[in-house]
Amino acid sequence: MVNTIFRVQSHKFTQENIQTTLVCSNCDEVFTKEFLLDLEGQTIEFKCPVCGNLGEADIPYKTAEEREEFEEDFDEVTEEDGVDEFEDDF
Ligand SMILES: [Zn+2]
Q1: For an engineered disulfide with 29, which of 12, 14, 50, 69 has Cβ 3.0 to 4.6 Å away?
Q2: How many whole angstroms from 67 Cα to the centroid of ligand 1?
Q3: 21 CA distance to ligand 1 centroid (A)?
Q4: What is the mean pLDDT of the segment spanning 27-53?
Q5: Ligand 1 centroid vs 62 CA: distance in angstroms?
């Protein structure tokens, strides 16, 4: 059973990978780790490089901003929920 959680303190997407800064819930140490871009949004199990405990981390998703930067035509989100036209009343 996995009982150690690696909390993502900060992360950054590059062209090649996802760079994360993680905190181990077991030893409280902060470390950095790189993940493949494919692992975006997934829960990954690995061993803490500091205390060696097996734990898991939730890899963050790219933000909309980061997404725009790298994949311009990826599933555009449109905001069109019934905007009423204003009528000019005299
Ligand atoms: Zn640890």
Answers
A1: 50
A2: 31
A3: 13
A4: 97
A5: 26
